[in-house]
Structure formats: C-alpha cells, structure tokens
Amino acid sequence: MKRRIPRVNTEVVNRDFKYYIFDWDDNILHMPTRIRLEHLEEDGCWKPVEVSTSTFALVRSDTKHYRAPLEGGWAAAFANFEDPAEESLDDRNNRFILDTVDALEKVEHGERPGPSYNALKKTLREGRLFAIVTARGHSPLTIERAVRVFIKYALSEEEREEMMSNLRGYRQWIDGVADDAFGSDAEELDYYLGMCRYAAVTNRGFKERMANDPIYREKLATATTAARPELAKEFAIRDFVEHVFHMLRRAGQLGRSVSIGFSDDDIGNVKTVSSYIKEELSKRFEGIKFVVYDTSDRTLSCGRKVCVSGQLNLPGF
C-alpha cells in the first residue's frame, strides 16, 4: 500500500519567530482544583474550607482569618496540586489531568475559559514553541500530558491538521527532513512537545535544579518565603529563553526577528517578571523582544499589556 505523503506548510519559512510562556491556572483554564485551608469563623473556631486558586490569590495574605491545616501544613493545603505518591501514566489517577478534562468540558458547554486559552490554541495551531510555567508541583511529564488533553479537546480536527502541517513545515525548514522521511503524526507531535518546556515551580526536581544554579542559589539565600515562587518563575522563564536562544543559534537563525510573550494572572508575578525582563533578560538577549501580559482582570478577554522590551505587537495575544 502506497504511503500517504503528509501535508507540509512550506510557507513557515516566511514567518518570524514568536514564542510564548503561559501560566496555567486562571490564565489558560479555570481549574476546579481546590486548596485546603482553615478559616476562622465568627464563633472563634477554625474550620476546614476549600478555596479556588483565584480566591486563594485574594486571601493568602489574610493570615488573621486563613491558615494552612494544622495537620500537614502547607503540604496538606496543596495536596491536590501534586502528582500521586506513586507516579502513574494512568490519567485516571492524576488530579491535574482529571481537572483539566473537567475544565475543558465546561468550556465546551459554554463556560468562559482563561484569558490566554485562545492564545495557546493559536500557538499550537501554528506549531510555535511554548513553555508552561505554573506554581503547581507536578512533573514535566504530567504537564505535557495535560497539553495533549488540551489539544484533544480544544482543537478541532481541521485545527489539528493545520498544526501537523505547520510542524512538518518547521521540521523540513529547520531540520532538513525530506517529504518521505517524516514520522507518523504521533511521532512528529512527540518531537514538537519534547521541544517545549514544562515547569511546575514547586516540583521537587525543579526546586533542586534551581538550588544548584549558582545565580539562583545566591538569590534564594536572601529571598523571603513570599518571594520564592516569583523567583522560581524567573528561573523557569530564563531557562526557556536560553533554550530558544541556543536552538536558534544551532539552526543558524539568530538573525531573524525573535519575540517572546509571557502571560500570568498573578499581579505579583507580572510585576516581578516585568522588572526581571527590563533589568536582566532584555540586556542579556538584546535581539529578543519581550511582552508581558497581566491577565488578572477577568473583565478583559485577553489581558493587559504591561511591559514591552523592544517594538513588538502581538495581534490576538
């Protein structure tokens, strides 16, 4: 039987290079995952409550009325944000995968998604590299599996075909793959997702890697507890930017226009990342243009541009 020659979008050679970094919760999807806390009631008793990530962002500094569970502390509070103790490839045992499916099904039934939902869809359709940077504690493999679930639910059959055509176009252009040498769709998708980055900044492996970095080991030594998650996102962003830079240098494409967009619904992260870009990244990577989007205001469908390094316009982001 004659092998079908897959569609290859050769027009990708005319594109500039745009890459994206996304927070997940309340930025891409409004996840049903709950944080376990204790709340001080009017009768003076502390009672267990479960709050959403968006509510937690509002009450986490209210230590007078909210605290971590006495039994287990913050580890117990964020138990739903970690992988199961025994890592399993069975998605039915993973809370993050189950909650991603739940959130996507709600979008299918008309619930409004996160402000960067369509930006991630466009990124995937166009086959552009991206990073997921989240305050969760899951492994990179778990987050990649969630992206695969997103592709299954959020992209139509035609959009998945468009994605694969673009991915093959990049592979032919950058890697020199011939028309008859492509792998299956599954293999090409594996290659693409393997080129992206997935950072859960409270994951043990991530924290160990950050602690072993000479620059961030020094930063962590003087950082307050509250500042550590923002530092971790800095580290994850730097890692992705370096990955993109080295990839383009190996491919001999550094002369092209390169831009990186970052979106997050946490205003603290937005301010920290904006300062980090201005003070460090934009000086180190002068040829890369950066944009930061604040998606904390749910009345704005796509967020608000708060920081630009270089002249850049990202339509539809």
Question: Which tags fit this structure?
Answer:
alpha/beta; six-stranded mixed beta sheet; disordered C terminus; 15% strand; 11 helices; 317 residues; 2 domains; three-stranded antiparallel beta sheet
3D architecture notes:
This protein has helices at residues 53-59, 73-77, 95-108, 117-125, 140-154, 157-175, 185-195, 204-211, 214-222, 228-250, 267-284, and strands spanning 17-22, 35-40, 46-51, 66-67, 130-134, 197-200, 258-264, 288-294, 304-309. The longest helix is centred in the last third of the chain and has 23 residues, at 228-250. The strands form 2 sheets. It has a 6-stranded mixed beta sheet with strand order 6-5-1-7-8-9, sandwiched between helices. A 3-stranded antiparallel beta sheet has the order 3-2-4. The chain folds into 2 domains: 10-28 and 92-309, no CATH class; 31-77. It is globular. It is an alpha/beta fold. It has 11 helices and 9 strands.
Set out the fold topology.
Elements: E1 17-22, E2 35-40, E3 46-51, H1 53-59, E4 66-67, H2 73-77, H3 95-108, H4 117-125, E5 130-134, H5 140-154, H6 157-175, H7 185-195, E6 197-200, H8 204-211, H9 214-222, H10 228-250, E7 258-264, H11 267-284, E8 288-294, E9 304-309
Parallel strand pairs: 1-5, 1-7, 5-6, 7-8
Antiparallel strand pairs: 2-3, 2-4, 8-9
